[in-house]
Design a protein that fits this description.
Elements: H1 10-20, H2 31-34, H3 36-42, E1 74-88, E2 95-106, H4 108-111, H5 116-130, H6 135-141, E3 146-152, E4 158-161, E5 167-176, E6 194-199, E7 210-218, E8 231-243
Length: 244
């Protein structure tokens, strides 16, 4: 997408990131029109054997740190966009999580066209942008290919199905609060925690052994109490990193 003769500014790359979520009817700066041919080239599917080894999963919120994926191989970085589901606890009269559903978009077409340093910065911008756009807009715009889906099974196990890349049936291995500066999302309740996940023993994981939910935007439930049997859904976005 970008010429080797000139290194684009982070601002320019951020405009591309914003255009990923914009339908044709949404106005964006003229940079999008000027670079449309290059933008399309960037989006031509998953970049074959692109090596993700230069990218590092964010693990710290500034005061706490998730466990490291030491000795593991990074196989996918995805942008998750979906909803967090909550129900009202009858004892505490507060909302508690009952799972989530998200679409996982492949970021490889973007990362394969810019430097790792630029890619790392842009990755960290994406959830804050994505949470402001309806999922249907991102899907129909087809700027990012869908790599897989995230959901919870009947027993409450988080499933990440990345098709031919692998499947992770997750078990929580770490949990830290999102940074205070994390985007609160359209609902304004705040960003859900960052998580480290490992393959659940005895479950049906395929290839994938570890996953991380980081750089979250939105997803927290209302904090003002609730009355059972109230339920609520909260929009969120996050980066999901997967290892084998």
């Amino acid at each position: 997408m970008f010429s080797n003769a000139a290194s684009p500014s982070l601002y320019t790359i951020a405009l591309y990131a914003l255009s990923l979520f914009s339908s044709p009817s949404i106005a964006v700066p003229h940079h999008r029109e000027r670079h449309e041919k290059e933008r399309k080239a960037w989006m031509e599917g998953r970049a074959g054997n692109f090596n993700l080894a230069s990218f590092n999963v964010p693990l710290s919120n500034g005061s706490a740190t998730l466990p490291s994926p030491a000795g593991k191989t990074l196989v996918a970085i995805t942008l998750g966009r979906g909803i967090q589901n909550y129900t009202c606890n009858t004892t505490t009269n507060t909302f508690v999580s009952i799972g989530a559903v998200a679409t996982l978009f492949d970021t490889t077409p973007l990362l394969s066209t810019i430097s790792p340093a630029q890619g790392q910065n842009v990755l960290n911008m994406l959830p804050g942008y994505a949470v402001t756009f309806p999922l249907s807009t991102i899907q129909t715009n087809a700027s990012f290919a869908v790599l897989g889906n995230h959901f919870f099974d009947a027993s409450g196990v988080p499933i990440f199905d990345l098709g031919s890349v692998g499947v992770l049936d997750g078990a929580k291995a770490g949990d830290i609060a999102a940074p205070k500066c994390a985007p609160k999302g359209g609902d304004g309740h705040g960003a859900v925690d960052w998580l480290a996940l490992t393959a659940k023993p005895g479950a049906a994981s395929v290839t994938l052994t570890e996953g991380y939910r980081v750089v979250t935007a939105g997803g927290k439930p209302p904090s003002g109490g609730c009355t059972a049997p109230a339920e609520t859904q909260v929009q969120y976005a996050a980066l999901y990193w997967f290892f084998k």
